[in-house]
């Protein structure tokens, strides 16, 4: 029998950000790149937080292989796992992919721990950032390694910060995080884009969203959120659709109207933008990204009003009477809002009842419309949300109008049968918000392992 304690990890891990000049350090890392010079050379090391430069002097640095033999810098190659012992020096590093550009490590000893089984590893440093289909295919075919590219690493550090600050803010205002099933007996969002699957001889589905469950959560905790995958059987291969995406879902009780939900979302987004600005300055610089402007006052247009405005201002073709925003309208209204109000965000509200999911609350002033909204950012929808029906009889009425069988939704209806407060919420697509924050045109680049009609591996 042995014991385990927490001292081991602590002693082997040095947080480079916290060490000062002249101090000695010892840390692990993977070799990102090697540059040999007459006097020695540079080994760029990949650490959890980013890249760091180490300097080898032939005369003073020793390099040891796995068997304890002394080797030269020429024997060090990409993707070796190494331990570095050295001293922190000040530096002025121009390479933008290096996170720590004001310090470098003067190496006293490098110990090789393990090495790849090939000498021809994929050169992740050479991977391009491009919309070109063949470039993307190569990157996604080799995603397990191509993610080691500094720009890809930066994208996922930003998406991690978005998810983390999303949770952080919501917890600070009384929300409880929940985890709901992804194997479900009914699709929540309707439509044809639901994946069927066999579940011990019974037909079930992959959850299109946690909609039913987050509403159920409101009956328990009043304010809930979830960060989890959602599945959509989108048959079209576009730059904004994934078949599996991460949905940042929020649902809250005791609202007086959808404006409260919209207000919460604005405050939440403000916190997320501030956190990304604060924690990801290196990543934003590397990706040459500028975060969107979210002013105090964000414009809100009813759908019919937006169609009218864009047509009257001759910014788009005539889409009046249509039940959704056309893509050219989404782009045009965002451009208009940016120029007129300095906002990269625009709310569109009051979508027609027929076009929205059945759980959307009808507008009491005009039941052909719903108290629902989309939030557009830089020309594309990043969120849908709104107020929900909270009375069982209203659900039964809407289901009857739509020819839905209430028996298929028994557990959901039982929730309202047993009492629910007025409530509403929204969902943000993580890959969409990340890619728009970073000015990346294809949402798949913001998915760690994208799933589309042609891809289920890696
Ligand atoms: P909706 O279907 O609009 O609403 O989805 C919410 C948000 O999820 C993202 N999203 C996607 N991202 C990538 N690929 C897709 N195929 C995809 N589909 C959706 C978008 C979108 O705005 N239950 C409601 C939300 C709510 O009312 O709370 C829902 O799922 O960013």
The major sheet is characterized as:
8 strands, mixed
Total DSSP E strands: 20
The hetero compounds bound to this protein are:
aspartyl-adenosine-5'-monophosphate
Q: Quick one: overall form?
A: elongated
Class from helix and strand fractions: alpha+beta
Q: Tell me the strand order in the biggest sheet.
A: 8-12-13-20-19-18-15-14
Terminal-residue CA separation: 39 Å
What does this structure look like?
29% of the residues lie in helices and 27% in strands. The model has no long low-confidence stretch (mean pLDDT 95). It has twelve helices and 20 strands. The protein is elongated. The two termini are 39 Å apart. A hairpin with a 5-residue loop joins strand 4 and strand 5 (70-71). It has helices at 7-12, 133-141, 143-146, 150-172, 211-221, 258-279, 281-286, 303-312, 327-341, 392-402, 410-417, 430-437, and strands spanning 24-36, 40-47, 50-57, 62-64, 70-71, 81-90, 103-114, 176-177, 183-184, 196-199, 202-206, 223-231, 244-253, 300-302, 345-349, 362-363, 366-370, 372-377, 380-387, 423-429. The strands form four sheets. It has an eight-stranded mixed beta sheet, with helices on both faces. A five-stranded mixed β-barrel has the order 1-2-3-7-6. It has 458 residues and is of the alpha+beta class. Aspartyl-adenosine-5'-monophosphate binds next to strand 13, strand 19, strand 20 and helix 12.
């Amino acid at each position: 029998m042995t014991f385990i304690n927490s001292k081991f990890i602590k002693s082997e891990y040095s947080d480079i950000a916290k060490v000062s000049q002249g101090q000695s350090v010892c840390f692990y890392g993977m070799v990102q790149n090697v540059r040999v010079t007459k006097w020695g050379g540079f080994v760029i090391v990949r650490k959890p937080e980013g890249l760091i430069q180490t300097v080898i002097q032939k005369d003073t640095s020793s390099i040891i292989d796995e068997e304890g033999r002394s080797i030269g810098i020429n024997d060090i190659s990409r993707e070796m796992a190494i331990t570095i012992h050295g001293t922190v020096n000040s530096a002025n590093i121009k390479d933008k992919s290096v996170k720590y550009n004001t310090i470098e490590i003067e190496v006293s000893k490098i110990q090789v721990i393990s090495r790849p089984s090939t000498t021809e590893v994929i050169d992740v440093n050479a991977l391009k950032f491009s919309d070109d289909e063949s470039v993307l295919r190569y990157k996604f075919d080799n995603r397990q390694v191509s993610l080691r590219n500094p720009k890809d690493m930066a994208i996922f550090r930003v998406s991690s910060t978005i998810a983390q600050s999303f949770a952080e803010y919501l917890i600070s205002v009384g929300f409880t995080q929940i985890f709901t099933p992804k194997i479900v007996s009914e699709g929540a969002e309707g439509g044809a884009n639901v994946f069927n699957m066999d579940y011990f001889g019974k037909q079930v589905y992959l959850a299109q969203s946690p909609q039913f469950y987050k509403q159920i959560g409101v009956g328990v905790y009043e304010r809930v959120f979830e960060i989890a995958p959602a599945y959509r059987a989108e048959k079209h291969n576009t730059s904004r659709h994934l078949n599996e995406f991460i949905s940042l879902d929020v649902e809250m009780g005791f609202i007086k109207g959808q404006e409260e939900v919209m207000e919460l979302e604005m405050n939440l987004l403000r916190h997320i933008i501030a956190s990304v600005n604060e924690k990801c300055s290196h990543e934003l610089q590397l990706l040459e990204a500028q975060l969107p402007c979210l002013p105090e006052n964000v414009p809100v247009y009813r759908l019919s009003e937006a169609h009218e405005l864009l047509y009257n201002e001759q910014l788009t073709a005539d889409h009046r009477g249509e039940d959704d925003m056309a893509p050219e309208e989404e782009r045009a209204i965002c451009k208009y809002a940016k120029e007129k109000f300095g906002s990269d965000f625009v709310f569109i509200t009051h979508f027609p009842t027929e076009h929205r999911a059945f759980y959307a609350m009808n507008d009491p002033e005009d039941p052909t419309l719903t108290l629902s909204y989309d939030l557009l950012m830089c020309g594309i929808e990043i969120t849908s949300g709104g107020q929900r029906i909270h009375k069982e009889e209203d659900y039964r009425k809407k289901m009857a109008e739509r020819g839905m069988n209430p028996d298929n939704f028994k557990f959901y209806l039982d929730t309202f049968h047993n009492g629910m407060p007025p409530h509403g919420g929204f969902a943000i697509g993580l890959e969409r918000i990340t890619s728009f924050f970073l000015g990346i045109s294809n949402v798949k680049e913001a998915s760690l392992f994208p799933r589309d009609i042609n891809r289920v591996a890696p």
